[in-house]
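2024-03-11 09:14:02 INFO worker-7 job=invfold-0412 stage=load source=structure_tokens
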């Protein structure tokens, strides 16, 4: 996919579209992060109860994104002929259901900045599996990126968390929280590989087709998990939302932000390529940590800020290496 693509758009037009994409991705996902942290840590109503059923967020997100993608496909009036059939997403949706549930569940045990950092270290399991299972040889710059990210996450995890941050957590337990985040990354890896396989077998599959199929199966799995037996957690979540309408509104806004963010991601990838999207989403994660620290009562120590900068230095270096590789490939192609 070409980074400089853009159908008939002039220089100023492309800058405005890019600014629109950046503003959309940042506003949607930073707001979603604030809402996710609010729902997981806030005490609602005069009784001061916490919303303990965080897996319900995934079900709500699945339903909203399924409806959203269905509407977008109908509005685009595009034929689905040649796209991957809806039933083919069943296996990828299993890991796509379990992985995010673990990531959200981790917020009971670690702070939001810690969760964002842990989930930013996706390259670590990829490189470990690539080296041990497939015998892939990586370059020294690749190892430098991994060292910076792994070292930063480790230093953040080992540094002392403020008592104010700990008091906001439902069940403080750092090893369990980080363990859930890394399991989330492992499941995400399988999900991404399966989705890539589907788009290879069915080239006419669009982003909306994937969004529809994944969220259809995600809704089915989460409904069974949360409402499949008497006194299941889904019934308790619905009852909580009835008793605390403020929580229900926060959950709805959380879902709408996620669906809107998907739109901006698809627009960014289609106009500017996946590397530009990666750059925007990586900087968004850093801003999310800053927002969480300033607005949501998660003060970070100087050592923790150093860990954050270490992680994002590694991620920025990785993005730079990708940009350089693309430029070299372009020069070779033009020669």
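2024-03-11 09:14:09 INFO worker-7 stage=emit residues=335
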């Amino acid at each position: 996919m070409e980074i400089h693509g853009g159908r008939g758009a002039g220089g100023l037009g492309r800058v405005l579209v890019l600014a629109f994409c950046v503003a959309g991705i940042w506003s949607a996902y930073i707001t979603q992060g604030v809402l996710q942290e609010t729902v997981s840590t806030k005490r609602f109503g005069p009784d001061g109860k916490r919303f303990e059923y965080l897996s319900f967020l995934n079900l709500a997100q699945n339903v909203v994104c399924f409806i959203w993608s269905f509407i977008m496909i109908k509005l685009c009036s595009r034929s689905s002929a040649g796209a991957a059939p809806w039933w083919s997403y069943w296996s990828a949706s299993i890991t796509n259901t379990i992985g995010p549930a673990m990531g959200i569940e981790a917020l009971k045990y670690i702070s939001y900045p810690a969760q964002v950092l842990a989930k930013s270290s996706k390259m670590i399991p990829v490189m470990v599996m690539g080296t041990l299972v497939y015998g892939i040889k990586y370059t020294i710059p690749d190892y430098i990126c991994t060292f910076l990210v792994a070292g930063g996450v480790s230093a953040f995890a080992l540094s002392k968390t403020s008592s104010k941050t700990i008091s906001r957590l439902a069940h403080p337990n750092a090893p369990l929280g980080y363990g859930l985040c890394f399991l989330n990354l492992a499941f995400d890896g399988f999900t991404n590989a399966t989705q890539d396989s589907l788009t290879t077998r069915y080239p006419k599959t669009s982003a909306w087709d994937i969004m529809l199929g994944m969220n259809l199966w995600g809704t089915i799995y989460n409904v069974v998990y949360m409402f499949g037996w008497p006194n299941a957690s889904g019934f308790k979540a619905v009852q909580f939302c009835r008793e605390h309408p403020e929580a229900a509104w926060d959950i709805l806004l959380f879902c709408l932000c996620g669906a809107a963010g998907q739109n901006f991601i698809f627009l960014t990838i289609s106009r500017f390529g996946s590397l530009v999207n990666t750059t925007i989403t990586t900087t968004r994660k850093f801003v999310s940590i800053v927002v969480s620290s300033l607005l949501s009562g998660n003060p970070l120590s100087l050592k923790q800020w150093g860990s954050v900068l270490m992680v994002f230095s590694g991620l920025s270096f990785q993005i730079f290496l990708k940009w350089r590789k693309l430029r070299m490939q372009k020069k070779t192609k033009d020669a």
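2024-03-11 09:14:09 INFO worker-7 stage=report msg="The CA atoms of residues 109 and 175 lie 8 Å apart."
2024-03-11 09:14:10 INFO worker-7 job finished
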